């Protein structure tokens, strides 16, 4: 009874059969391609399967085949409908309802979690790149400081060389002043010795001259001087 009812429910009118026959005859030389490749029906059956049955059996062919197959399985008790069947049917219905109702929310939540995790990974990558960039800048700065240390070392060496030169010149000036002081001392000693010799000689000459002059010569010299002074005075008048 069930198979007969299924067959009666899927019978096609004659007009549909004629239209299918005309369409099949018109398009026999070219295959019918699906308008939307990748599209599915009933949530899991590909559109290409329906197009295949359409080309072979017409528009109602897939449905006839499906209903007939189910009717055959149930009528021959190949598929036994016991309590597990209803449990499975209930689970299937619940799964479909869960997919239809909870699927978008779960997909939205999963997409949000994926975006969040991706943002965290991206932020971590950017932070790591920033830290590496800062490390590179710090390394460049340290290299610049190392170059500055070399320049500072050269400046210190030059400063030490200048200090050595200044110390050398200072000691050379000290030697010059010391030698000049000693030479000046020797010159002063020679001058003093010469003055003493001159004074001693003058005193000796004066003493000898005074000792050689007699009183008579002194008197005559004195009179001569007076006479010369008188003559000079008279002449000046």
Automatic annotation (TrEMBL):
User: What top-level branch of life does the organism fall under?
Assistant: Eukaryota
Q: Is Cell inner membrane among this UniProt entry's keywords?
A: no
- Record key words, sorted: CF(0), Hydrogen ion transport, Ion transport, Membrane, Mitochondrion, Mitochondrion inner membrane, Transport
> Per its UniProt record, what InterPro entries does this chain match?
ATP_synth_Bsub_B/MI25 (IPR008688), ATP_synth_F0_suB (IPR013837)
Keyword Mitochondrion assigned: yes
Task: Tell me one GO molecular function of this protein.
Answer: proton-transporting ATP synthase activity, rotational mechanism
Where's it mainly located?
A: mitochondrion
Q: Which residues form a coiled coil?
A: none
- Can you say where in the cell this protein is located? Mitochondrion; Mitochondrion inner membrane
GO CC list: mitochondrial inner membrane; proton-transporting ATP synthase complex
Q: Which family does it belong to?
A: Belongs to the eukaryotic ATPase B chain family.
Q: What does the protein in this record do?
A: Subunit b, of the mitochondrial membrane ATP synthase complex (F(1)F(0) ATP synthase or Complex V) that produces ATP from ADP in the presence of a proton gradient across the membrane which is generated by electron transport complexes of the respiratory chain. ATP synthase complex consist of a soluble F(1) head domain - the catalytic core - and a membrane F(1) domain - the membrane proton channel. These two domains are linked by a central stalk rotating inside the F(1) region and a stationary peripheral stalk.
- Quaternary structure (record): F-type ATPases have 2 components, CF(1) - the catalytic core - and CF(0) - the membrane proton channel. CF(1) and CF(0) have multiple subunits.
Protein name in UniProt? ATP synthase subunit b
Q: Which organism is it from?
A: Stomoxys calcitrans (Stable fly)
Q: What lineage does the source organism belong to?
A: Eukaryota, Metazoa, Ecdysozoa, Arthropoda, Hexapoda
């Amino acid at each position: 009874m069930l198979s007969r009812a299924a067959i009666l429910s899927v019978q096609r009118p004659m007009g549909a059969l004629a239209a299918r026959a005309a369409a099949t005859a018109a398009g026999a030389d070219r295959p019918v391609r699906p308008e939307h490749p990748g599209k599915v029906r009933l949530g899991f059956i590909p559109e290409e399967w329906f197009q295949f049955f359409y080309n072979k059996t017409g528009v109602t062919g897939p449905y006839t085949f499906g209903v007939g197959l189910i009717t055959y399985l149930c009528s021959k008790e190949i598929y036994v409908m016991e309590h597990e069947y209803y449990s499975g049917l209930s689970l299937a219905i619940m799964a479909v309802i869960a997919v239809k109702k909870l699927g978008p929310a779960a997909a939205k939540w999963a997409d949000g979690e994926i975006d969040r995790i991706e943002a965290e990974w991206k932020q971590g990558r950017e932070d790591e790149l920033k830290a590496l960039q800062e490390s590179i800048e710090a390394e460049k700065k340290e290299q610049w400081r190392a170059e500055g240390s070399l320049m500072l070392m050269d400046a210190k060496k030059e400063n030490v060389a200048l200090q050595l030169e200044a110390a050398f010149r200072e000691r050379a000036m000290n030697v010059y002043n010391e030698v000049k002081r000693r030479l000046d001392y020797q010159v002063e000693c020679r001058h003093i010795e010469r003055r003493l010799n001159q004074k001693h000689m003058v005193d000796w000459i004066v003493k000898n001259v005074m000792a050689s002059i007699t009183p008579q010569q002194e008197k005559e010299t004195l009179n001569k001087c007076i006479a010369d002074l008188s003559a000079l005075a008279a002449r000046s008048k």
